[in-house]
């Protein structure tokens, strides 16, 4: 709902970030009220993980236009959305550090009675030293105030919403914990947990889908940590953000965080209590392995964790809450069915209402000490917001009360006081989308744990590698007697210039047997995924635009390795 400018405070001689409302919202009383609420809420918070507010001005006259403005701490760094997009996915240790830092910042807000309501990768900034800063309280709400939001509107970013946000139930600190769980899933997998093509599908998966599935490389204890935060029932999540942070830090310090997923379950069944009954409103899955849908667990899967053995001794376990009584589950199921009936209608306004969470940072040129002028359009952090395009060039020059910021260089390119942006010329004003964009990272593999071994492999190469990939080559893996035991696939994503390799098993499907997949970009180190897998090895991804690659894999005693090829 605002533009954020990099500016210079001429009195204190410091770089600041100045946020102003978009010109199109200057006559909207609700957005003005929300903007002023953001300033008040942020000013009440003091924590190194929360962007600091320096000043606020109301009705400043700039170029014959009255504007409200917010002067904030300038954060040098990149959004977590961009950071994940660049890496494809983050490691367990880095993810746990991010979760712990963000949760500690949220705990400060929660103890002050403030719920952020829009925690997502683009609202977390990563400093060069790896520290995390929470920004953009534009849709935050104080528990002590009456909501200024139209009761028929859904506020937030759909792919990182909690079920209670979508269904209009009370929003609490547990809502932010769910959102941070979604952020953690995105860090580990490169995609949001309920990603879909449009808002209706996102809502359907959020309310009725099973738990999202993790790549094989994610340890069980880490998966359980994230899944507890993502529990549909707020009462079953971590009781506080501080508890979530403590659990993440404890897990990060465990010597065996990276324990293999094949570790046997504990002898004591109470060691890792799970919800064993599927929600009654979801039909039981058919026999055989169901076809996964963009990485979600099969419909009807218990919402109770990753469904695998717990880690070996030493790794802390974060169990889900005890199973709810059948009557409670039935009541909850009925409530959800009613909620889904209105989800489609509610989704129609998502494209408009989620604009409230969009902050675009825009280039600036030299002006007088009291004003800044847009010289171009900053890069959006990523399309996880509907209507997240940058605005066209405008004049926007807030005057910062006692210390008016002066334009100096380009504006930041991320929400609420972020890093300098690219200075591409502005093209056209943005248009709000009524759909839901994907987080700008690659889709990770589907669930790896169907409950019954199928006769044929239920996964395809494009499912595993993710959105935008197409098969460019493949090699059959055959034993000496001609038996087909697997297929190695090479895929390419034109939009990102990335290759993906995986080995799909054709025999012993559903049973863990040795398999490998590798990808080597010419001039770089080979990347390999190897181990015991039930369905496939990989995916192994690497940027390889206009670069030769070697690729291959093995399973069932057959191996394939290519020469350098596919150089264009």
TrEMBL record:
CDD domains named in the record: STKc_PknB_like
Gene3D superfamilies attached to this UniProt entry: Phosphorylase Kinase, domain 1, Transferase(Phosphotransferase) domain 1
Protein's UniProt keywords contain Glycosyltransferase: no
Membrane spanning residue stretches: 339-361
Top enzyme category: transferase
Record-annotated Protein kinase domain positions: 1-251
Matching InterPro entries: Kinase-like_dom_sf (IPR011009), Prot_kinase_dom (IPR000719), Ser/Thr_kinase_AS (IPR008271)
Biased composition (Low complexity): 269-279, 366-377, 385-438
PANTHER family reported in the protein's UniProt record: MITOGEN-ACTIVATED PROTEIN KINASE KINASE KINASE 20-RELATED, SERINE_THREONINE-PROTEIN KINASE NEKL-3
Descriptive protein name: non-specific serine/threonine protein kinase
């Amino acid at each position: 709902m605002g533009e954020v400018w990099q500016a210079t405070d001429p009195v204190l001689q410091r770089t600041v970030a100045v946020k102003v409302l978009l010109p199109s919202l200057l006559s909207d009383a609700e957005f003005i009220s929300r903007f002023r609420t953001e300033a008040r809420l942020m000013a009440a918070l003091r924590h190194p993980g929360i962007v600091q507010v320096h000043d606020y001005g109301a009705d400043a006259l700039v170029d014959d236009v009255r504007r409200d403005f917010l002067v904030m701490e300038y954060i040098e760094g990149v959004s977590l959305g961009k950071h994940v997009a660049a890496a494809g996915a983050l490691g367990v240790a880095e993810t746990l550090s991010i979760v712990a830092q963000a949760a500690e910042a949220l705990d400060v807000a929660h103890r002050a009675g403030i719920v952020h309501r829009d925690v997502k990768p683009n609202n977390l900034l990563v400093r060069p030293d790896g520290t995390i800063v929470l920004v953009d309280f534009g849709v935050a709400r104080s528990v002590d105030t009456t909501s200024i939001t139209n009761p028929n509107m859904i506020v937030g970013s759909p792919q990182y919403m909690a079920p209670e946000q979508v269904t209009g139930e009370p929003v609490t600190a547990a809502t932010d914990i769910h959102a941070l769980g979604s952020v953690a899933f995105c860090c580990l997998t490169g995609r949001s947990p309920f990603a879909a093509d449009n808002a209706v599908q996102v809502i359907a998966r959020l309310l009725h889908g099973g738990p999202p599935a993790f790549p094989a490389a994610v340890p069980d204890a880490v998966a359980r940590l994230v899944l507890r935060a993502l529990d549909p029932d707020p009462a079953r999540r971590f009781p506080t953000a501080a508890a979530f942070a403590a659990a993440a830090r404890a897990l990060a310090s465990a010597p065996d965080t990276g324990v293999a997923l094949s570790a046997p379950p504990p002898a004591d069944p109470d060691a890792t209590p799970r919800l064993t009954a599927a929600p009654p409103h979801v039909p039981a899955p058919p026999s055989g392995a169901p076809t996964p849908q963009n990485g979600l667990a099969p419909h009807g899967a218990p919402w109770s964790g990753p469904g695998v053995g717990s880690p070996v001794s030493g790794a802390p376990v974060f169990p889900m809450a005890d199973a709810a009584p059948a009557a409670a589950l039935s009541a909850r199921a009925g409530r959800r069915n009613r909620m889904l009936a209105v989800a489609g209608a509610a989704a129609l306004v998502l494209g408009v209402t989620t604009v409230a969470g969009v902050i675009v940072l825009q280039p600036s040129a030299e002006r007088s000490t009291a004003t800044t002028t847009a010289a171009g359009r900053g890069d959006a952090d990523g399309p996880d917001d509907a209507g997240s395009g940058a605005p066209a060039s405008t004049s926007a020059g807030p005057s910062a009360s006692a210390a008016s910021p002066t334009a100096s260089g380009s504006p930041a390119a991320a929400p609420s006081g972020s890093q300098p942006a690219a200075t591409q010329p502005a093209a056209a004003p943005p248009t709000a989308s009524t759909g839901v964009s994907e987080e700008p990272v690659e889709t990770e593999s589907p669930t790896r744990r169907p409950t019954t071994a199928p006769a044929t492999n239920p996964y395809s190469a494009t499912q595993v590698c993710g959105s935008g990939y197409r098969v460019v080559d493949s090699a059959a893996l055959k034993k000496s007697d001609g038996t087909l035991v697997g297929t190695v696939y090479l895929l390419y994503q034109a939009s990102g210039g990335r290759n993906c390799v995986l080995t799909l098993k054709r025999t012993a499907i559903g049973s863990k047997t040795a398999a490998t997949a590798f990808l080597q970009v010419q001039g770089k180190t080979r990347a390999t995924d190897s181990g015991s897998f039930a369905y496939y090895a990989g995916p192994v991804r690497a940027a390889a635009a206009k670069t030769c690659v070697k690729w291959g894999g093995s399973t069932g005693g057959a191996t394939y390795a290519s020469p350098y090829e596919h150089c264009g």
